[in-house]
Amino acid sequence: MSGMIIHNPVAGIPGGTLRAAGRAPGRPLVLRRDLRASLADGAGWGAMVGLGETYFPAFALAIGLGELMAGLVASLPLLAGGIMQTVSPLAIRRCGSHKRWVVCCATIQALTFLPLVLAACWGRLSGVALLWIVGIYWAAGLSTGPAWNTWIGTLVPRTLRAGFFASRTRASQGAIFLGFLLGGIALQWTSANGRVLSAFAGLFAVAGLSRLVSVWMLTRHSEPTPIPAKMWAIPWRQMRRHMAACSGGQLVVYLVVVQAAVQMSGPYFAPFMLEKLHFSYAAYVALISIAYLAKVITLPLWGRLSQRIGAQRLLWIGGIGIMPISAGWILSQNLTYLLLLQVVSGIMWAAYELAFFLLFFESIAEEERTSVLTAYNLLHSTAWVAGSLVGGLILFACGTSYAGYLWLFGLSSLGRLLALPLLARSQSKSQPAVELAGPPVACLPRATTLDAPVLADRPDQVTDAWAHTAS
User: How far apart are CA 322 and CA 87, in angstroms?
Assistant: First the structure.
């Protein structure tokens, strides 16, 4: 059964595979229910991101808080959330269950949309209040990540993981993309008659309800192992030494450095296109869409390749492939060329994101996964903000000139090149990658590694267009 290709991890799982994966006669039925519930959870989460999270900065502009506050909303709460979620390992122990903690945090995240709906109806909200609300949103969301990864690892058998996570992420990213498009249409239509705040109220209400649907689906999951028997929280004073010693820690270091390099340029592609290249809104949306579609369409091919070469080699392909993407914008700004470059970008990021998601399961022990991923969330958030600040300072020093943008794109690619030795170091300590079953069609939904404004799940990747058209 180890070589079997699983084309549909819910309806199409062969009974023999399920029986082999389960340890009791009733396990296949429980597993089917868990996988269906997880798919629905992913779709509900994606709808929340597409309709709500992506429009936080645009909402700041709509209620008159200004461009500076819109920029702060896109970055500062992420760092605050990364810091606040560090209580997760202790809280999970107090709860005695990963499931309880995930459901609790997801519920809090859903409820953060209520004050946003009220603010949209009233037409006013202070900048400090908005930062607090979005900070709590990120803290609750990031807190679910490490616990969910540990929990879902106990639910999905190794032989089914690649195929299942492919379908789950297809559902979540499809919901993100659909929510993004519908939200944009609603805002564009209502801005013509001065009712854009009503559209925000509706979007945030549906986003909150979508997350509550996700919460309901989470409650329907089983939890065979509430707390792994050998689970332990790595003290922060030992985390640096631990990351230097284990392959999982080295992997986290590499990912964080790449994230910082990416964010040197990532937030500045949209203003470059809209202000310097004077692209139309239609061209901007086309560049977003084509990279996203290339990413989703080519992931089945990467999934099949990962069965033969393993996730470690796939990460090398992705890590090398994403290296020149941002520098590619220096060569030409012709729209046809950039569309082709965006296709390559989507293909390469697909390999990178799929590989690092699978390697999280392979290289980080289950008993320390929650602790390591909590540290990763904090480091990731810090890298996100630090990279964007460094990029902003470089651009400011260049007078936000056309040449300044090109320097920024080149330096971002250089940073990714310099990170490759860290990848080599992490894999020199790893065990051989396991065989992967199933043809993945998508990747980790929380990946935030994008060069140009390719739709993912971070607000600054998709909202600048609305801010530009609104002004």
Answer: 33
98-111 and 113-122 helices, crossing angle to 10°: 0
Q: How many helices (H) and strands (E) does the chain have?
A: 20, 0
Nearest to 266 by CA among 18, 32, 471, 452: 452
Burial of 12 (0-12, 13-18, 19+ CB in 10 A): exposed
Q: How far apart are CA 12 and CA 294, in angstroms?
A: 25
Phi and psi of 358, rounded to 5°?
-65, -35
Distance CA 169, CA 272 (A): 30
- Residue 261: left if φ>0, alpha if ψ -120 to 50, beta else—which one? alpha
- Tell how far CA 199 is from the center of its chain: 25
Q: Tokens 């697909």 belong to which residue?
A: 350
Cα–Cα distance, 88 to 104 (Å, whole number): 11
Structural domains of the chain, with CATH: 26-470 (1.20.1250.20)
Taking the alpha carbons of 300, 303, 304, 309 in that order, is the dihedral positive or negative?
Answer: positive
Distances from the Cα of 261 to the Cαs of 73, 323, 385, 389, 390, in angstroms? Answer: 21, 10, 11, 11, 9
- For the record, the structure tokens of 165 come out as 């996570």
Q: Say which residue the tokens 């009791």 belong to.
A: 24
End-to-end CA distance of the chain: 58
CA–CA gap between residue 212 and residue 16 (Å, rounded): 35
C-alpha to C-alpha distance for 31 and 179, rounded to whole angstroms: 29
Distances (CA, A) of 204 to 53, 210, 211: 9, 10, 11
Tens digits of pLDDT across the chain (471 residues): 333 333 344 444 444 444 444 444 456 788 888 889 999 999 999 999 989 998 888 888 788 887 567 667 777 787 777 777 677 777 777 877 888 889 999 999 999 999 999 999 998 899 899 999 998 998 898 888 777 877 887 888 877 776 777 678 778 878 888 887 788 788 878 877 888 899 999 999 999 999 999 999 999 988 877 665 555 555 555 555 655 555 556 777 888 899 899 988 877 786 787 678 887 756 776 787 788 778 878 877 888 888 788 888 999 999 999 999 999 999 998 999 999 999 999 899 989 988 877 776 555 555 555 666 667 777 777 888 888 888 888 888 888 788 888 998 999 999 999 999 988 877 655 444 333 333 222 223 333 333 433 333 332 233 333 233 233
Cα–Cα distance measured from residue 206 to residue 200, given in angstroms and rounded to the nearest whole number: 10
